[in-house]
């Protein structure tokens, strides 16, 4: 447990940041009045997500590895961090769906049918629901976390001096 203390800390911070992002989206109207823009603007979440992953990896390097972390060590740390975020994501998604923005799914279902993205409400409901989003967020967290780590560690790792 001590070996992954930093990853647990950053996974919790990542989840809190995700919840705050969703509050911001809701307050800005992206879950209601401006739902047509949600598809595009929600992708800006990648900026704080990458930032938090990098901060977690840098802390691991500084605190756990005393400033000397190779690519493999960082990759393992990032995979662990991504895995913990993925494990927490169904709970995070539950809070978003049922507490922060319970109107999001009804709004996006209605709008997606109105604009012809889906032919029927039933089709839209099959896509826009808690279970589907919980699965997508877990898989997305794992995949994007690993990709982010793989790239970030090129820059974060300790370079060998000769």
Written account of the structure:
With 162 residues, the protein is an all-alpha fold. The protein is built from 7 helices and no strands. It is elongated, with a radius of gyration of 18 Å. It holds the Pfam family DUF4199. InterPro entries: DUF4199. The chain crosses the membrane at residues 7-24, 39-57, 78-100, 138-156.
Helical content, roughly? over 70%
What are the low-pLDDT stretches, counting only 5+ consecutive residues below 50?
Answer: none
The number of helical elements comes to 7
Cα Rg: 18 Å
Give the class from helix and strand content and strand pairing.
mainly alpha
SSE order, as H and E?
Answer: HHHHHHH
Number of strands: 0
Comma- or semicolon-separated keywords:
mainly alpha
Show the helix and strand layout.
Elements: H1 5-27, H2 35-41, H3 46-64, H4 71-100, H5 104-114, H6 121-127, H7 130-156
Helix pairs in contact: 1-3, 1-4, 3-4, 3-7, 4-7
Quickly describe the structure.
This protein is an all-alpha fold.
């Amino acid at each position: 447990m001590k070996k992954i203390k930093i990853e647990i800390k950053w996974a919790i911070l990542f989840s809190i940041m995700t919840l705050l992002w969703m509050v911001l989206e809701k307050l800005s109207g992206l879950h209601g009045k401006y739902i047509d823009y949600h598809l595009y603007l929600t992708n800006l979440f990648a900026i704080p997500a990458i930032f938090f992953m990098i901060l977690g990896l840098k802390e691991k390097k500084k605190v756990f590895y005393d400033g000397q972390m190779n690519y493999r060590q960082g990759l393992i740390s990032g995979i662990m961090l991504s895995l913990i975020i993925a494990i927490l994501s169904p709970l995070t998604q539950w809070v978003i769906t049922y507490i922060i923005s319970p109107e999001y799914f009804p709004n996006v279902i209605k709008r997606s049918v109105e604009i012809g993205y889906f032919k029927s409400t039933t089709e839209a409901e099959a896509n826009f629901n808690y279970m589907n989003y919980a699965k997508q967020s877990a898989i997305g967290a794992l995949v994007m976390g690993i990709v982010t780590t793989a790239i970030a560690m090129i820059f974060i790792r300790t370079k060998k001096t000769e």
